[in-house]
Amino acid sequence: MTNTTLIALVLMAASGVALALQAPLNAMLGRGIGSPLAAATVSFGVGFLVLLLLTLIIGDGASLTRLGTVPIWLLIGGTLGALYVFSALWSVPVLGVLTVTTMLILGQMVAALLLDYFGAFGLAAQELTAKRLLAAALVAGGVVLSRI
Hints:
Blueprint: H1 3-33, H2 36-58, H3 76-95, H4 97-118, H5 130-146
Helix pairs in contact: 1-2, 1-3, 1-4, 2-3, 3-4, 4-5
């Protein structure tokens, strides 16, 4: 295993921990200020400021000037992130962190299976194998078990 692979694995595991922590923290913020939507707005605002500062500190600020050169539909990623933040902070008090996280992973796996299968966004197409379907089915079973 290369160092780059190891760093990527650790980074994604840490990001998984961050997502699990983000949902209940944002839910508490929503209760504290009295609005899940306002809490999602604040969360995104703080995230924006942190990323903007990092972009400037690292020296990538000039990249922001090229924003007008990319197709506008590529900005939908921010909308999808906002949907996640709001959905998670609203759903945690209803479902709990485990079920919210498991449903998030299941949704990601279903989308990933389809994106891989169709070779979307220039990805190399991947077969829809029994093992890959079983992986998603096991996560679906985890959703069921998390609610028992």
